[in-house]
Amino acid sequence: MQTVTDAAAIRAAIRGWRAAGQNVGFVPTMGNLHAGHHSLLKLARARADRVVASVFVNPTQFGPGEDFERYPRTLAQDQAGLAEAGCDILFAPEVATMYPFGPAASVSIHVPVITDTLEGACRPGHFDGVATVVAKLFSLVQPDIAVFGQKDFQQLKVIERMVADLSLSVKVMSAPTLRDDDGLAMSSRNQYLSAQERTRAPQIYATLVQMRELFRQGHAWQALEQAAKARLERAGFVPDYVAIRRAEDLAEPGPDEREGLVALVAARLGATRLIDNLPFD
What we know:
The protein is of the alpha/beta class.
């Protein structure tokens, strides 16, 4: 596996592949990779001749007081894992490569409406940073397909909306959430949990599963949101939101809407903020 850090090098490699008639899969990440990330590589590897992964901790998607400075940076470990997973090129740009005029003076992409709720409401500006960096990465890598995990469900929908609205040629694919044996969704932030918190963290997934089962039994979604929030609070979480939404656009469902829905949770456990979701279909 080759590691490149500048725009000219990644573009030259892509040109060589294109000249050979090969298509390109892409997995953008912020590093500190785990088995969930490697599953995205596996999907890209199955659908493309060549695969690029990026590792870039993007400053514009972190708000004030969030964990940008302490976000784990483990490039050597990531290189070894990506090579084993079948990655052809790791693109690990510096901030100056992605933001040549500095993050504060960068062109910014705002995806309206779908970013106004849930994570967007809790973390103002977060999805502007996500959309901007993903658009920049797409411009540099020019992939045929790009793979994102379903754990960051709203992020996936924001990127799908951006690609459709800007008529970008990349096909966005999603990969299922990978979970530990106790149900906790794999995340780089899980390592922030204390041993005691780690034993309680699977309550998020258990709550989502209970919401889905009760919904299938005919319970109203509004009541399920309230009950699930109370359950998490009793377990020691501080929820930012517990919501049932339409999977397509994250709008609130109608009172009699029973199909195409997803439950989403964001909650703090100690100093760690965890997110998860579960489709109801």
